[in-house]
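Repro:
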Amino acid sequence: MKKNVNFSFFFFLFLLSTISFANEKKIEVIDGDTIHIGKLKYRFFGIDAPETKQICEKDNIKIQCGVIAKNVLKNKIGDKVPECIVKDKDRYQRLVAECFIDKESLSRFMVREGYAVAYTQYSKDFVEDEKYAKENKLGIWSMSFQIPSEYRKSLRNK
């Protein structure tokens, strides 16, 4: 009888772990404004973060500000799954969305902490957050940097 109880208990644990694993979604942070959740690709609405290969400069020292922005976002998300509200689709077929962790906008967080700029070509939602980061010299605002959209344009013109 004891063997049946042990088998049932372990079988139950196995099923429980299988169900939990099946419900988990793989989160991948691509850069400071793009994430993948499972097979879905999200581009954050209203912001523009430095590209992963983008370099900024502070006190004559080159800094990988794109990598830093990516890591800041990665640390903010941690092991949680963001909830995203889709607003549009971009030309790369990514879902343009505002994503949240514990009801906090990741777009607002990235701009307010200075690791992204307000993408005013598409939205004015984060202009005040950018102003705050700029005034307090947070993140990239403490460095010399090229606006991400201008950086991408300069790469196309080479």
